[in-house]
Amino acid sequence: MNPSGSNELDRYLNAATRDNTRRSYRAAIEHFEVTWGGFLPATSDSVARYLVAFAGVLSINTLKLRLSALAQWHNSQGFPDPTKAPMVRKVFKGIRALHPAQEKQAEPLQLRQLEQVVARLDLEAAQAVADSDRPSLLRCRRDAALILLGFWRGFRSDELCRLDIEHVRAMPGSGISLYLPRSKSDRDNLGRTYQTPALKRLCPVQAYIEWVNCAALVRGPVFRGIDRWGNLAEEGLHANSVIPLLRQALERAGIAAEHYTSHSLRRGFATWAHQSGWDLKSLMSYVGWKDVKSALRYIDASPFADIIAPSDVSQISSINKNPL
């Protein structure tokens, strides 16, 4: 094979794996080789001893990821996969029995809190206009749009950060259409268009339009970094920056933000929809979940105060039947 053909092959192989997964796999292999001192290709015995060494130290999910990374390395290099050996499976099963996973879930952002943080951002935006403080105004408009879109669309942080202006169509007072070429739930990278209607309160469409107009964005990433002088970055926000952005906005609104993450937006919407009478099938279709267990993990049984108009509830719940 010529070098150019090899480079093309590597490019397509890399494209088949999400960036986050690729980084996690590299870190896992490094942990096995460098931190623990294992050798590759590995034997089933060494993999079993590696699991025992970190049982109770690393979470079940982390150990599972390490096994996946080892399996992927061996398969890609043409070696037998030691993680499939009966002994390895039995050891992992024993670890799960003795060290059951205690899953930590983000606190769902409730509607009252959503209203509180958006009200605070609107107040800060008004003050920024009065003070001719463009950097602060930009940050307020960006944060409000990100939080409202993240909530009402149930987007993950990486999905928010990969939105491009060219793939968004917003119609004032009507709704917004957002196309994502790929996402975690889109395993075949077929792309999907998401839609959300305009609302009477806490409107994601209005927030998006205000942000894009304020920043004069015409192409490229929707959500970007903003420096102290109000200059916008060319690249989109990194997914890891969404948590501190959300927590800072919550804290300024007087909400203790320690237990909130970017998943709080997704969990908050799922819980609101559940309490508003959505059936599980409609919720899964709207958010994009393929697995029932995944959907149920996001639903919190605590009641929500009904601060959204009933007409807004019906608008959102019928979006799949009436595309924009």
Structure description:
The chain folds into two domains: 3-98, DNA polymerase, domain 1; 111-317, hpI Integrase, Chain A (Orthogonal Bundle). The chain is mainly alpha-helical. The N and C termini lie far apart (48 Å). The protein has a three-stranded antiparallel β-sheet with strand order 1-2-3. It has helices at residues 3-15, 19-35, 44-54, 60-77, 86-98, 111-130, 134-153, 157-161, 204-215, 242-252, 263-275, 280-287, 292-297, 310-317; strands at residues 168-171, 175-180, 192-197, 224-226, 232-236.
User: How many structural domains in the coordinates?
Assistant: 2
Reported CATH architecture of the largest domain: Orthogonal Bundle
Globally, the shape reads elongated
* Backbone CA Rg: 23 Å
- Proportion of strand residues: 5-15%
- Which oligomeric form is depicted? single chain
Secondary structural class: mainly alpha
Could you tell me the number of beta strands? 5
Any low-confidence stretches, pLDDT <50, length ≥5? 301-310, 320-324
> How far is the N terminus from the C terminus?
48 Å
H/E element order: HHHHHHHHEEEHEEHHHHH
How are the strands of the biggest sheet laid out side by side?
A: 1-2-3
| CATH class designation of the largest domain | Mainly Alpha
